[in-house]
Structure formats: structure tokens, C-alpha cells
Amino acid sequence: MKNLYTSTRNNTIELSAKAAIKKGFADDKGLFVLPNIEDINIDIKNLTELSYQDIAALVLKNLLPDFNAKEISSSISNAYSNSFDDDKITPVVSVGNFHVLELFHGPTAAFKDVGLQLLPQLMTHVLDAGNQVMILTATSGDTGKAALEGFKDQPNMGITVFYPHGGVSKVQQLQMATTGGKNTKVVAIEGNFDDAQTNVKQLFNDKKLKQAIGENVSLSSANSINIGRLIPQVVYYFDSYKQLVNQGAVKLGDPVNFTVPTGNFGDVLAGYYAKMMGLPVDKFVVAANENKVLADFFTNGTYDRNRPFFKTVAPSMDIQISSNFERLLYYKSGQDSKYVANLMSQLETEGKYQVSQAVLDSIKEDFYFGYSINDDIEASIQDTYSEHNYLMDPHTAAGYKVMRDYQQIDSETPMVLLSTASPYKFVGAVNDAIHVSNSDDPQQMMADINQKTKVAIPENLKSVWSLPIKHKDVIEKADMENYVLAKVKEVFDDKD
Ligand SMILES: *Cc1c(COP(=O)(O)O)cnc(C)c1O
């Protein structure tokens, strides 16, 4: 029983991990979850000698029980053998009295690579012979490129990425628009990220579209609502703990805290999975930007998205509907799928819901929420650079300030700040903080920041300026369905 996934909105559903990865999310619009994760126990004593890849195998074996050992090991080795520029995959570096878990050493310089290098490999073992899958992804900037790189030229798979027109950084936009490969499609939509995400979710439930694309092609998701993307992120929580123990910074068994900049709540939820599986964590400190729906929830238990939407200097966190929060509600309500379904239907109809005091209290046992406005983010980039000679991207910096707030409450427990992107993906915001370039051309800024700070530019970002532009489409929200249909035909009919 406990080896099967169910839906956050209907716990009578049962399906294998493979089926859950193939489908992306449930027909009732719920997310797939594994009940009783707390019964899994990864013994941290055994971690110290293991490589990142070994720990990944251990985590995947437990959370994806219907994959066999060979499928897991080949997926992991294909995903992580050559694509990261650091042997540790996700190295931990110490800065002042905290530690930074650097998640940006993959092929697109954002933490999304950790999940999105592995998801297509897992997908290979999920597709039946003769079946094809079109991945549909809404992106606030980083998921798009990371998913494109992961799925590019994978046999029997195609990918279509939707991003908010004008809502991503120049570097992010170029990264996506220059993607090669025969099966990759990229399009800007007139709307913000939440519009894109909501519409993509609708496409998955669109019967007319399903009929038009035929039985052999399925639609799936590369967002962190897909367990095949979420579960790889559990690994670096265990691995970072191992690194801290091996560096002598933490005594084996002692708790640590993690600060996580959040958008869709996927990254930090993966940490909570690790905690449920036995990792000694005291608190997860969750940081939002000015779109602080979750920080407000923390004060009064009301999740309310009826509010103005802000475009901030940390655009990958410009989100008002944190999809994965639904999974936390499932676990924190005692796996009460009726309760979750009811909250989610209120969110859909009224744009808000209120949780019970018991659920809020239970969340507060494990989480602390805060936020940074743009000025805080700038000040944080500036402070860590001038005080510690460490250059942060604006998302990581949004976490930094909230981390400092929390350290006023607990200064003893070792603190790990997750760094989610290279500073070179967001040169405008970084330069506004440290003022090393007089140019307003992002390419020049990148060169000036490099020259002044001596922080290396990731190879994949250096090359972005000279690659040919391959994707220029801009469409209205209402045209997404037709667009997908056309792209399914282009990608899969070519091959006959
Ligand atoms: C996606 C992203 C986030 C937010 O992560 P979630 O899993 O959506 O909470 C934070 N920072 C960067 C740079 C990102 O790309």
C-alpha cells in the first residue's frame, strides 16, 4: 500500500511512481504524494562515505519504489556525469557564520538543473513502446531553460515552454530563445507567470486537446508539481548535511537549519521530505520577495492571493500560487485529502482559504516564513560582497535577509542558505547593488562584474550572447491550446 502514490485531493486514488511521473498531476487537479513518507528512514550514519550519486540512488530507491536498481543507476549517471561543473554537484561553501549550498553548477546555472537533468532520464523508463510525450512547462525564468536542456533531443519526447512576455531577465530570455534541438519549442505569452501556470494546468485537463493530439501522445509537466522533478531535489539536503559533517562543521546527528528562497514551494518542500525521512533539521526558513503570500499566511493562517502582483528583482519568485504548498497541507492535515480539496476549491473560487489553528501550529513547528523587498535584496548582495567577498544572486539574497532575521531567534543551530542561481543570470540587479559597471548593456555588465569581482562566469552564460536566436513566438493566453496542438504535430509528425 504505502508504495503507491495518491492525490492530495482524493486519497482513494492509487498509482505507481512511474504512472505519477508520466501523468504529472491528478485528474482531480491534485498533486501526487506518497502517504507515510515518515515511515522511510535514511540512516544518516551511512552517508558520510557516499558520493552525491550514491545518496541519490538511496533517496530514489525509497521514493520511486517501482524503478529497478539499474533504471535508477543509469538515470543518475546520465544526469550527473558530465553536466555539472563541480564534482560535488551541489557544493557547500562556508561564508562568515553560515554555509551556502550552491545549487547552480549545472548546465543552465540555476538550481532547477538538479531536478531537470534527472526527470527526462526517469521519463525514459516510464514511456511505453510507441508512446510519445509532450512536456508543457510554465516558467518564471529558470525552469524553462533547465527543462529545455534536459529534454532536448530525447527520443519520443518534446517540450513546449511558456514564459511571461517581459517577465524574465535578458540572460534568461536569451538562454531560452537560443536553445537548439529538434523537439524544443519556446513561446512568450501576454500575461504573468501565474497566468501561464494556470493555463498550462488547464491544458492538461482539456479533453478536446487530448482528443486532437491522439492516444499515443501524452502531455506531462516538468514543473515541480511532477514528482520526477521534485524528488531529485531531496538529495541535496542529505548530501549537504554529509558535506557539513565531513567538513567538521556539524556533529553527526545534530540538527541544522536551512534557509530557502521560495516561489512554487518545491525546493523547500523537498527539504521537508528529507526531514520526514530522517534528516536532522530544526527549522526551514522560507523567504519570499515582495509577493509575500506565504509570509502573510504565517502570521494569520490565511492564504490570500487577492493582492497586487509585483515584478521584482528576483523574478523566479514572482509567484502568488505556490503549487507545492498543497503537498505540505496534505501532510500537515494528517493526510486529509478531503480537507485539502476543500481548501483548494476555495482558492480557485475565492482566491483564498484559511487553515485550522492546528494545521498552522503544525506548520510553524517546522517552518519560519519571511520576505525581502527589493531594497533588502540589494542591501544583502552588497553586504555579503563587501563583508565576505561572496557574490550572491538576487534570489539567494532574498533568502539572506530572512536568514539574518531568523538568526536573531536562533543563532546556535548551524545555518545553510540555499543559493538558487548564479549571480550572472541577473546582472542588472547585481550591478545595482555593487555598482561595478557604468554600462546598462547586460553583456558589458557581465564582463565588468567578472573583471571587478573575479567571480568566474559559467561557460553556458558566456556563450549566450553569440548564439543564433531560434525562438521568437509571442502569443495571447487564449491561443495556448492551439499552439500546443500545432507543436505536437510539428515535433512528432516529422519523425514518420
Ligand atoms: C525556481 C527558483 C526559485 C524558487 O524555487 P521553488 O522551488 O519554485 O520554490 C528560487 N530561485 C531561483 C533562482 C529559481 O530559479
UniProtKB/TrEMBL annotation:
Cofactor(s) listed in the protein's UniProt record: pyridoxal 5'-phosphate
Entry-linked InterPro entries: Ser/Thr_deHydtase_PyrdxlP-BS, Thr_synth_N, Thr_synth_N_sf, Thr_synthase-like, TrpB-like_PALP, TrpB-like_PALP_sf
Q: State any GO CC term.
A: cytoplasm
Q: What is its EC number?
A: 4.2.3.1
What's any GO biological process attached to this entry?
A: threonine biosynthetic process
Top enzyme class, one word, equals lyase
Annotated signal sequence range: none
- Tell me where in this chain the Threonine synthase N-terminal domain is found: 5-80
Q: Which residues carry this modification: N6-(pyridoxal phosphate)lysine?
A: K112
Q: Does the keyword Phosphoprotein apply?
A: no
- Catalytic activity line of the entry: O-phospho-L-homoserine + H2O = L-threonine + phosphate
Q: In which pathway does it act?
A: Amino-acid biosynthesis; L-threonine biosynthesis; L-threonine from L-aspartate: step 5/5
Please give the Pfam families that the UniProt record associates with this protein: PALP, THR4_C, Thr_synth_N
What molecular function terms (GO) are annotated for this protein? pyridoxal phosphate binding; threonine synthase activity
Query: Where does the record place the Tryptophan synthase beta chain-like PALP domain?
Result: 101-373
Q: Provide the alphabetized UniProt keywords.
A: Amino-acid biosynthesis, Pyridoxal phosphate, Threonine biosynthesis
Q: Tell me which family the UniProt entry assigns to this protein.
A: Belongs to the threonine synthase family.
Q: Which PANTHER family match?
A: THREONINE SYNTHASE-LIKE 1
What this protein is reported to do is described as:
Catalyzes the gamma-elimination of phosphate from L-phosphohomoserine and the beta-addition of water to produce L-threonine.
> What is the protein's name according to its record?
Threonine synthase
Its source organism is Lentilactobacillus curieae
Species classification? Bacteria, Bacillati, Bacillota, Bacilli, Lactobacillales
